Structure formats: structure tokens, C-alpha cells
TrEMBL record:
Belongs to the cytochrome P450 family. Pfam families: p450. The keyword Metal-binding applies. GO terms for molecular function: heme binding; iron ion binding; monooxygenase activity; oxidoreductase activity, acting on paired donors, with incorporation or reduction of molecular oxygen. PANTHER family: CYTOCHROME P450 (PTHR24296). InterPro entries: Cyt_P450 (IPR001128), Cyt_P450_sf (IPR036396). Keywords: Heme, Iron, Metal-binding, Monooxygenase, Oxidoreductase. This is Cytochrome P450.
Length: 99
């Protein structure tokens, strides 16, 4: 279902968060939760959804506590215009173990 062209359109493979906005961009378009099959919805929703988010936060905090993450010198950081914040040309970082 996550790749059905009838639901998501011909560009289903493209990361395009603005697809969830109304044509004028003023409000979110309602999309039923059953379309997001990663965790599903309703009475048969994934029992591990909440614990998955807890583990993701644990991994992120462990990485940030144990490693130093720095933007590569000379890399220009510029955001892309979108409903969610992401970098126009990616974010190049250097990861090194903390001392």
C-alpha cells in the first residue's frame, strides 16, 4: 500500500512532503492513518510503535554522547524550501569519537 500509485500518485518514490498540503499550501490535507503501513492504525496497530520511537531516541542520544559530530569545514549549509526542514545539498558532517 505504501507504494500504490492510485493512493500516492505517479511520484510516490519522490520525497515530497508538500504532497500533504492543500493546493494553496495553507493547511494539511487529511490522509487516513491506514495509508502509513509501517505501524498501521486502529485496533491492529503495531504494538511496538512507541518502543520503536524510544529506541530511536536512545540511539540518537548514545551517538551524540559518544561521538562528536561537526559540519565539514567549507560545506555550505542551506535549507530547502519545504514543509519539513532538510538540507538543500545534504549535510556533510565529520564524526569522531569523544575523548
Amino acid at each position: 500500500m505504501g507504494r500504490m500509485e492510485e493512493i500516492w500518485g505517479g511520484d510516490w518514490m519522490v520525497f515530497r512532503p508538500e504532497r500533504w498540503l492543500s493546493p494553496d499550501g495553507s493547511k494539511n490535507v487529511h490522509i487516513p492513518s491506514y495509508k502509513f503501513m509501517t505501524f498501521a492504525a486502529g485496533p491492529r496497530a503495531c504494538l511496538g510503535k512507541k518502543i520503536t520511537f524510544v529506541h530511536a531516541k536512545q540511539v540518537a542520544s548514545a551517538v551524540l554522547c559518544n561521538y562528536k559530530v561537526e559540519v565539514v569545514e567549507g560545506h555550505r549549509v542551506s535549507p530547502a524550501v519545504s514543509i519539513v526542514l532538510f538540507m538543500k545539498d545534504g549535510l556533510k558532517v565529520r564524526v569522531s569519537r569523544r575523548k
